[in-house]
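Hi D.,

Good news: the full-assembly prediction came through. Inputs first.
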Amino acid sequence: MPAIEIRPDIHWIGVNDRTTDLFEGLWPITQAGVSYNSYLVNDERKAIIDLAKGFKADEFLDQIAQVMDLATLDYVVVNHVEPDHTGILRTLRRIAPQATILCSEKARAMLEGFYQIAENVRTVADGETLSLGQHTLQFLSTPFLHWPETMMTYETTQQVLFSCDAFGGYGALQGAIFDDECLAPDFYAREALRYYVNIVAVFSRPVLKAIDQLKDVPVQVIAPSHGLIWRQNPGRIVELYRQWASYATTPPPVGVALIYGSMYGNSEEMMNAVAQGVSGAGVPVEIFDVARTHSSYILPALWVNRGVIVGAPTYEGGLFPAMVHALDMAERKHIRNRKTAYFGSYGWGGGGRKEFERLAESLKWEVLDTFEFRGGPTEEDLEKAQEFGAQFAQAIRG
Ligand code: FEO
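Then the structure:
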């Protein structure tokens, strides 16, 4: 895509990534894609704010060339060192060695570690300003959004906040780069949530701190490094992030994530009866087969629902391994304080429930009920499962 002016002399120069299978080598983005948004302030002194992954170098450099001559670049602002925003830094440095890199103190050591770049690097302090001529940049320290070195850059005259990972989302840009031109708001909201839970959720406290820190900063445009640029309603993405971050410490809305695994369909049959019970009680339910769904898609449901029902059989004396993995990912992402219940099939000695209870304790999830059955469910088991679902739904609503 060509460079796009987002405010006078402030240009978006991002690139879409539709070929990387796994973001961070872990999270599937084959279908949604992702954008690496970079920005160029073309003033008396010229600055690029955040870069892109080390690919599509020609496209990235061509976008810059549409606006200015790289030989005249004065600054590269590195808000965050993670290589999705700096992968192209060494290439840029070879072409424009005169440009000074501006970053936080912690980022300086990281740049040396990742890229062996130490020359012509200047650290900036929280609140420090830099005049480019008609535009002024202010650097705001926002550690752990998403790494400890992270900062945001605020352009004071046009009131543009370059927020890097914060307020970003998965989803390559589909022609439109602005919220008011976007024809697929639900897609971006869904992918922003998935991105939030996959990448940012562990740092929810710093998110709330940063939002509080920004409350007196007048912002016309939020220009994150992934996803849509918010110029019509920047408050919308801030509010979504505030809401999602709050679920780290306060109960999310009434709803159930029903995650299950099934070897021969017995636990699945029970799952359907449990889902009938939950749904019949008027509580929304999201259902995932843990063996067939990447945790990237399961984690958001665990994050935004108050209740988690786990249905999985015993496997070799413990819990079905795909379920253990899903719960381990929940643990790694600090999804705490949910209400939970377990059901599952066993062939002879059991063991699934015991391992579930151990994992639930570690997650600090409150176990409201458990229900095991031998082999395939009987009519009586299915009735019991429906009642089990209904009672769980009523308990989390209460
Ligand atoms: Fe988009 Fe933490 O990098």
